[in-house]
């Protein structure tokens, strides 16, 4: 990775974290189009999930429905998604490198 790519990646991570910090304060408390439609179409849209979310509705259960809990959960979620994306990228990069090193004639 060259210096330009590192700067671009760092700027993207900083923008994602700024959005994660500001989103709980800027988001509407009214349901969005998808959630509103689901409430109209389905009699009980809040069914039991297969797995319990550790951060339900972008909150921390210990902090309740406070914006601080939303900020912490969104920062945690952003870092988790970035780490997963990095891990998937690393797996594909190692497979590509393994395919280039051997196996092709």
TrEMBL record:
Membrane-spanning parts: 7-27, 68-92
Superkingdom as given in the UniProt entry: Archaea
Keywords assigned: Cell membrane, Membrane, Transmembrane, Transmembrane helix
Subcellular location: Cell membrane
One Pfam family this sequence matches: PDGLE
Ranges where the PDGLE domain occurs: 6-93
InterPro entries: PDGLE_dom (IPR025937)
One annotated Gene Ontology cellular component of this protein: plasma membrane
Cited NCBIfam families: PRK06287.1-3
Protein name: Cobalamin biosynthesis protein CbiN
């Amino acid at each position: 990775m060259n210096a330009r790519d590192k700067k671009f990646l760092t700027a993207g991570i900083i923008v994602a974290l700024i959005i994660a910090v500001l989103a709980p304060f800027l988001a509407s408390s009214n349901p969005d189009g998808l959630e509103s439609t689901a409430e109209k179409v389905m009699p009980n849209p809040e069914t039991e999930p297969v797995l319990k979310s550790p951060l339900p509705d972008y909150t921390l259960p210990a902090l309740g429905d406070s914006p601080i809990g939303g900020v912490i959960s969104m920062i945690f979620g952003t870092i988790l998604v970035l780490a997963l994306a990095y891990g998937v990228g690393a797996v594909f990069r190692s497979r590509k490198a393994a395919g280039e090193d051997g196996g092709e004639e």
